[in-house]
Design goal:
Helix content is 74%, strand content 3%. With 283 residues, the chain is mostly helical. A two-stranded antiparallel sheet has the order 1-2. Helix 1 (6-27) runs antiparallel to helix 3 (35-55).
Length: 283
């Protein structure tokens, strides 16, 4: 049976990662704008660069590019996951923040391991960058989902039908527009920042419905202090998961192995006081 060429197998994996990067970015075009198409194309360009450097046998450069691409792909996925997990009832989603932080940290470790040892201040800056990138991306997506969340909650009020003369499409358009306009008029043009301010202020709004005298009230399940606690705890958990994986990059492999050998040798060394007690007991 012919043996598989490791370089060819690794290059195939890197190209698959580039494809995942492109697909992930195209999925976010609807929410984050057309610039995501540009970054998706950037992923394809990186895939070509990986292939070309592999042909040139520059394996170290190819590995660095491939791992960087994997880190960026995972950052996109984590941001999407965080935007959905944050609002789980009774803060159940917070467990996943530390889980995905660990997964992301392991990928960052793979990328940075080629540069070890890394000075602690530099490593802290790198880790904080990836944590804030992923976490803030999740918060931005969560903010972009708000108008649809408001519509999904308010449409349940009309299980028996909308007011006469009001079509479902018109009702949806009105709710989406009123939610977005309310945030921008009261808290500023940036949707993410205005969303955070609105949540901290109480996370509620009143909607006007055509053909209905009373307005509709909407409240977020997590708002005020609850929202602030969830945001702070999630940030801490993501950071903990990240640094639990990359913290050892301040040391070389030789230093880690020496510390491991010293710990093993210390465990294997018998305690003199325990030996003396055993000897006395035997006598």
């Amino acid at each position: 049976m012919p043996k598989e060429n490791p370089t060819q197998a690794s290059t195939s994996a890197d190209l698959i990662t580039a494809l995942l990067w492109a697909v992930a970015n195209l999925m976010f075009v609807r929410y984050l704008g057309q610039w995501m198409m540009v970054t998706g194309g950037f992923g394809i360009c990186l895939a070509l660069a990986i292939w070309i450097t592999a042909l040139a046998r520059k394996t170290r450069l190819r590995a660095i590019l491939a791992n960087l691409l994997l880190v960026l792909t995972l950052a996109n996925f984590n941001a999407w996951a965080f935007s959905h997990l944050g609002n789980l009832f009774y803060f159940l989603g917070l467990f996943f923040f530390i889980l995905f932080g660990v997964i992301h940290g392991a990928t960052v470790f793979r990328f940075l391991s080629a540069f070890r040892p890394i000075r602690r201040p530099i490593l802290i800056c790198i880790g904080c960058f990836w944590v804030l990138l992923t976490w803030s991306g999740g918060l931005a997506l969560e903010a972009s989902y708000l108008p649809k969340d408001v519509y999904d909650a308010t449409i349940e009020t009309f299980k028996r039908g909308l007011p006469p003369g009001l079509r479902a499409a018109d009702f949806k358009t009105d709710v989406l527009a009123q939610t977005t306009d309310y945030l921008r008029e009261n808290y500023g043009p940036n949707l993410t920042i205005s969303y955070v301010q609105w949540e901290l202020a109480g996370g509620s709004l009143d909607l006007t419905v055509r053909g209905r005298e009373r307005s509709l009230a909407y409240e977020r399940p997590q708002r005020g202090i609850g929202f602030a606690l969830r945001v702070l705890i999630s940030l801490v958990l993501v950071a903990y998961g990240m640094f639990s994986q990359i913290g050892v990059l301040t040391k070389t492999k030789e230093q880690l192995q020496a510390e491991k050998d010293a710990a093993t040798e210390e465990e294997d060394t018998p305690d003199p006081s325990a030996l003396s007690r055993d000897t006395t007991a035997t006598v």
